[in-house]
Design brief:
The complex is a heterotrimer of chains A (102), B (191) and C (630). With 191 residues, chain B is an all-alpha fold. Chain B has seven helices and no strands. Among the domains of chain B are: 1-78, NADH-ubiquinone/plastoquinone oxidoreductase chain 6, subunit NuoJ (Four Helix Bundle (Hemerythrin (Met), subunit A), Up-down Bundle); 140-191. In chain C, helix 4 (113-132) packs antiparallel against helix 5 and helix 17 (390-404) packs antiparallel against helix 18 (408-433). The chains are: A mainly alpha (102), B mainly alpha (191), C mainly alpha (630). Chains B and C meet through helix 4 of B and helix 25 of C.
């Protein structure tokens, strides 16, 4: 218990990932959905960094960098779209956005 | 020993912060909790010896991304509670738990992990930042440049999507035209 | 000679096609004249062939082309004109030509005149194939062909429900018998390896009696259907729904004799199995008396004549069963002539009485229809078997054959039937032509038939009169292929007693018939007289209730069974299965359509569910890899 090994970090990452999944499935407000997506990305970053540390390989940290870069750009574009939608419909509740109903 | 205490402490904090993000009814609380969670995650990076990554996490995530979210929040009425129609709790919790259990099962089975060979091994003695710099600008140069282009594109997209009156350019108009513009705006506001 | 063979065979076919061209058009006389002329051509060719066979004693055998040659099975379209077939050909062509000419007059007011001649000539063509073929397969082709053509001709007036019913009954009964015949043909092929008559009969001499008996029985079952032996006899009386020329041609002279022809042709087989022959003879005798009893009380002149045909067919089978094949064939020939004449005369009467068939409503027609009366009386005398007309020579020979072979029961039955035959034939003659005039009161205005129709019937009358004298020449010709059996009654005394006795018995029956039915107090029976309500009368007039039996116990259950198969099995199970599969697919699609709700939250949930599935698959796969020995 004292000795923190790779499996501890991986379990932590999994728990955070599960919390992120709960948020993704539960949230009906689009902005809060984005928050949950951020949680998912962060949990994955922890996993990458942990593996990189325990195997002595820098690849994990590189990957984490790129994940952060992509998350940032995703947020930028996502928020832009969110704002356009809000201007048009004045409502960002997911239940009202079902024009793709098939 | 310190490592263990730090790990458990920050683990507890991160999990509770993210839990708040996922379950709260107030959007502002969610935002704040998310920012806090990001900081605590960077603590993990520091524990793991990924110093540069931890610094980047604080600057980019907590600084830039959360600031972006905060600006986005200004559009909405944040005093109201977020009203959400409840989905089926059992499905949600059940599915997530199931996926978590399965992932743990997968990663705990030592099938792949016995055969991992380090591609870019850590060299002792040099600081983490220097190492990251060397690998980033030599082996990962192309992804680096591509990421840069992608960030540029995202930035332009963000501006185009959110901007107003993009066809008028204030810098290219002379003073007389700017005064005309202001008078028209005043007239509209008065009438 | 081959040329004459092909002409005789195909001339009726050309006539049929010619008339068929006009099939849907209104009546045109040329559609009747050309087929009749072509039949005359066929008649002339058959006569040439007859002269050839008579003079040289050789058969004409051609193989037109190969039909099937697969593996060991070789069936050609081959034709054989030997003494037996040339006899049949003459009978068929003479009667057909007369009937065609008669029908031009009889059907002159019918709208479907052209169609009639097309089918009639097609029938003659099928019959020619039947008698001229040299193998069992060709025989079967002709067999089925005459079945189809007789169906079309019986149901000629297809708007009448009774006619279509009778046509279907005839065809279906024939088909049931054809199953037996097919099994017989299969057995012939299986045991002898060939269907050609000559080779098959050669090979049969070496087969074991059990197999031969089976083959003989099955082939006879086929003959039973075509020649309306008990129990497949009900169709013949009902077939009188067709026009009278059809009855004359098909049900007197040609189609019904196909069964007798089959037995005669297969005489080499039946000679080897005398037990089956005895059965055939007994059945024939039974049918003879059975039909004669039903004819005694019937009130429909065509039906009476039909029953008399049935009775005479019984005579022919009795002769064939006893081994007297040439006698059977001779009786076939003589019978064809006088029976066709009887039917055509009956047709004249029907036409005159506007299709009324009850003889009790006629009476005294001899005054207005002299020619018909003379012809019908002549035919009835021939039928009764009085010297010197044809019936005497043939019928008496059959009685002699039965007596000399010591089958006394068959002899007695046939003798008794001869008396009955004379009685019922003259009953009809007396009721129609003699006695008081009952028809004028009922509003009929009869007139004689067209002269050319009477002239067409005269050749038949002549043949009915003189054909008997050809017996010795006939005998000399036909024993080339048929067993030469002469029947000697041991003492001349017995012989003359028998012959004279038979004649006296017949004359007495005729006298009795005239006396009873020429008296002036004959009335139209209306269901109230004591005679009509007696059990015997009811039994006979309802044909021993056999058609009723068939309807109740065969037709109705079969129809119910068919309905079960249709409604429950076909529609519910088969269609249900197919529709069910389609419905499953459709409903699956309908139900999974809900997944595309357009709601992002729902889709995210589905995404996580898919993720869980993939993870579990990964776990399972990993575990199996780990624990399966690798």
């Amino acid at each position: 218990m004292m000795e923190i090994g790779l499996s501890h970090y991986l379990v932590l990452s999994t728990i955070l990932f599960a919390i992120g999944l709960v948020g993704v499935m539960k949230r009906k407000n689009l902005l809060l959905l984005f928050f949950s997506t951020e949680i998912l990305l962060n949990s994955v970053n922890i996993a990458f960094a942990a593996i990189s540390h325990y195997y002595g390989d820098l690849t994990g940290q590189m990957f984490a960098f790129f994940v952060i870069a992509i998350a940032a750009s995703e947020v930028a574009v996502g928020l832009g779209l969110l704002i356009v939608w809000h201007k048009r419909h004045n409502n960002i509740d997911l239940d009202t956005m079902s024009s793709m109903k098939g | 020993m310190f490592e263990a205490i730090a790990f458990y402490l920050f683990a507890f904090l991160t999990i509770s912060m993210f839990y708040i993000v996922v379950t709260t009814q107030q959007a502002l609380y969610a935002l704040t909790a998310l920012a806090a969670g990001m900081i605590f995650i960077s603590a993990f990076f520091f524990i793991l010896g990924a110093d540069f990554l931890g610094a980047v996490q604080i600057i980019v995530y907590t600084g830039a991304v959360m600031a972006l979210y905060a600006f986005g929040m200004m559009f909405f009425d944040t005093t109201r509670d977020v009203k959400e129609k409840q989905g089926n709790k059992f499905i949600i919790v059940g599915l997530s738990t199931l996926s978590a259990v399965l992932v743990v099962l997968i990663v705990s089975a030592p099938i792949v992990s016995d055969n991992i060979v380090a591609l870019y091994p850590v060299v002792d003695g040099i600081g983490n930042t220097q190492e990251v710099g060397v690998v980033l600008f030599t082996k990962y140069l192309i992804p680096f440049e591509v990421a840069a282009v992608m960030l540029l594109v995202a930035m332009v997209a963000g501006i185009v999507l959110a901007g107003k009156k993009m066809d008028l350019s204030l810098t290219l108009m002379n003073d007389a035209e700017i005064r005309e513009l202001n008078e028209e705006k005043n007239k509209k506001e008065l009438s | 000679m081959e040329l004459f063979l092909y002409t005789a065979l195909f001339a009726p076919f050309v006539g049929s096609l010619f008339a068929a061209i006009f099939g849907a058009s209104p009546k045109t006389i040329i559609a009747g004249i050309i087929p009749s002329i072509l039949l005359g051509v066929s008649l002339l060719s058959s006569t040439v062939l007859l002269v050839h066979v008579l003079s040289t004693g050789e058969a004409v055998h051609v193989e037109m082309m190969t039909w099937m040659h697969t593996g060991n099975l070789y069936i050609p379209f081959g034709f054989l004109v030997d003494q037996v077939s040339v006899t049949m050909m003459m009978v068929v062509t003479v009667v057909s030509t007369v009937v065609h000419v008669y029908a031009i007059g009889y059907m002159s007011h019918d709208k479907a005149f052209n169609r009639f001649f097309a089918w009639l000539s097609a029938f003659v063509f099928s019959m020619m194939i039947l008698v001229m073929s040299d193998n069992f397969a060709g025989l079967f082709i002709g067999w089925e062909g005459v079945g189809v053509c007789s169906w079309a001709l019986i149901g000629f007036w297809y708007h009448k429900e009774s006619a279509t019913w009778a046509a279907n009954e005839a065809f279906i009964m024939n088909r049931i018998a054809d199953l037996g015949m097919l099994i017989g043909i299969f057995l012939v092929y299986w045991n002898t390896g060939t269907l050609q008559y000559h080779e098959a009969f050669e090979a049969m001499k070496h087969l074991d009696t059990g197999i031969l008996t089976t083959i003989g029985i099955f082939l006879f079952i086929g003959a039973m259907g075509k020649s309306a032996q008990f129990p497949l006899h009900t169709w013949l009386a009902d077939a009188m729904e067709g026009p009278t020329p059809v009855s004359a041609l098909i049900h007197a002279a040609t189609m019904v004799t196909a069964g007798v022809y089959l037995v005669v042709r297969s005489n080499e087989l039946y000679s080897l199995i005398p037990n089956v022959g005895l059965f055939i003879a007994s059945l024939g005798a039974f049918v003879a008396v059975f039909a004669a009893t039903m004819a005694l009380v019937n009130r429909d002149i065509k039906r009476v004549i039909a029953y008399s045909t049935l009775s005479q067919l019984g005579y022919m089978f009795a002769a064939a069963g006893l081994g007297a094949y040439w006698v059977a064939l001779f009786h076939l020939m003589a019978h064809a002539f006088f029976k066709a004449l009887l039917f055509l005369g009956g047709g004249n009467v029907m036409h005159a009485m506007s299709d009324e068939l009850d003889p009790f409503k006629m009476g005294g027609l001899g005054k207005t229809m002299k020619a018909t009366m003379i012809l019908m009386t002549l035919a009835s005398v021939a039928l009764a078997g009085l010297f010197p007309l044809a019936g005497f020579f043939s019928k008496d020979m059959i009685l002699e054959a039965a007596f000399s072979e010591h089958h006394f029961i068959i002899y007695t039955v046939l003798l008794f039937t001869a008396g009955l035959t004379a009685f019922y034939s003259f009953r009809i003659i007396a009721l129609i032509f003699h006695g008081e005039d009952r028809h004028t009161a009922l509003g009929f205005h009869p007139h004689e038939a067209y002269p050319f129709m009477i002239k067409a019937m005269i050749p038949l009358a002549i043949l009915a009169a003189i054909a008997g004298f050809a017996r010795p020449y006939y005998f000399d010709m036909v024993i080339a292929v048929l067993p030469e059996t002469e029947y000697h009654i041991h003492s001349a005394m017995t012989y003359w007693t028998m012959t004279i006795g038979t004649q006296l018995f017949v004359i007495a029956a005729i006298y009795f018939a005239y006396k009873k039915y020429m008296s002036s107090d004959i009335k139209v029976p209306d269901g109230t007289s004591e005679m009509e309500n007696s059990f015997k009368y009811k039994l006979l007039i309802n044909q021993y209730y056999i058609p009723y039996f068939y309807e109740e116990f065969l037709v109705k259950p079969y129809r119910a069974l068919s309905r079960v198969f249709w409604k429950d099995i076909d529609m519910k199970i088969v269609d249900g299965t197919v529709d069910g599969i389609a419905n499953i697919i459709y409903n699956t699609g309908e139900n999974t359509r809900g997944m595309q709700s357009g709601n992002l939250s729902t889709m995210l949930k589905w995404m996580v569910a898919g993720l869980v599935i993939l993870l579990s698959l990964a776990v399972i796969f990993g575990l199996t890899v780990k624990y399966s020995g690798v």
